[in-house]
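Q: I have 233 residues here and want to know how they pack in 3D. Can you give me a structure?
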Amino acid sequence: MTFDRSIKIAPSILAADFANFGAECAAVEKQGADWVHVDVMDGHFVPNITFGPATCAAIRPHIAGVMDVHLMIAPADPYLEGFAKAGADILTVHAEAGPHLHRSLQMVRNLGCRAGVALNPATPASAVEYVLDRIDLICVMTVNPGFGGQSFIDSQIEKVRQLRAMIGDRPIHIEIDGGMTPDTAPLMAAAGADVLVAGSAVFKGGSVTNPAPYGENIRAIRDAAEKATGVLV
């Protein structure tokens, strides 16, 4: 992975056809996805259960680019090695999921992955102030984690502005997870985000046998975000 602040679209497979994960990952990449986002939930930290390292290992061969694994689990540390071995390029842990965030991030990097921290809507930007030199990505939750298809929480726009100022020239991505559409993506891009996770907004209207709508949806989100940052005129 090389670092740049161009807009990247990361479809969440939480909104894909669970019976065709491998084909869905390949389809969204062919239709223009930059990363593939994998939402891991444990039914404890969040009120839902999705999948674990075995699923990540199974879909890894079908992902040509970045597999972005978001761990909505607590505790996370005992499972970091399993997800790293499954092929995660980025491993994101929640700041709220354990008492020793610095240690968790050290583990992620020692396992050879890029390290991310996710912040729930009620968690302030200051939660990452003392680990900025240990992270490669900050994931700002713009919905309460646990389910797809929720409404965007607009109070997080100011949080992204604060994080962008804190980051300065450090090579840290700001990722947005939750409620991303062509209407909300420009708000976050203008505030300083560069990675936009979208589930239902990408997968709606398409399928592995009819993937063209995936590309149309990805382009709509990307174009709206890039216009907000002045990339397009």
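Q: Anything worth noting?
A: The longest helix spans residues 212-229. The chain is about 30% helix and 20% strand.
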